[in-house]
Amino acid sequence: MKNHRIPQEVNAGSMADIAFLLLIFFLVTTSIENDAGLNRIMPPEDNDVIVDIKERNLFEISINDADLIMAEGDVINPKNLKEKVIAFIDNGGLPNQMEGYCDYCKGDGLVDSSDNPDKAIISMKTQRNTSYPVYVAVQNEVIAAYNALRNRESLRLFNTPYETIYSDYYNEEINDDQKGQLKERLEIIRALYPQKILEPETVNN
Known about the structure:
Blueprint: H1 15-29, E1 58-63, E2 69-71, E3 74-75, H2 81-89, E4 121-126, H3 132-158, H4 162-169, H5 176-192, E5 197-198
Parallel strand pairs: 1-4, 4-5
Antiparallel strand pairs: 1-2, 2-3
């Protein structure tokens, strides 16, 4: 009679413990980055609220379903959008004797454009079939316009570009005192050129 080997069972009793320890290890050692997101003004529930915004303080950008970009009713190349947004935000249309006059603006002071940077609002409208790359390209040009103005004022006030102050603020190697000073400078520049981008509800075709 032949001898039959009885297969030995694999002791898997500790596998659950090992898996649990590995799970804890990865949870502890993995760094999860926080998404900063986009700073946007949400569309109001009551559409009548937008009537309070003066027409000259609203710069309208729209992207249709064919990815054509229009700024203030005219078709525009996205490469020229940054310059137009800067001119609008930095216009400084109020006379110098009026409250809200912008003494640091370097625009043309047109009466049919924005009163000051605090009043200037960028409105971006899209349609359902607007492509995402074009939408992002327009977003980038608008943000670049704000950054250009903030860099200019930051250089004037602190002899340092705004983007440098921003990156230094998030540097983990700086101490609390330095971080506090950088935060104060960021708030000063952002108050001079607050980022106000309104995205109304997407338009159907």
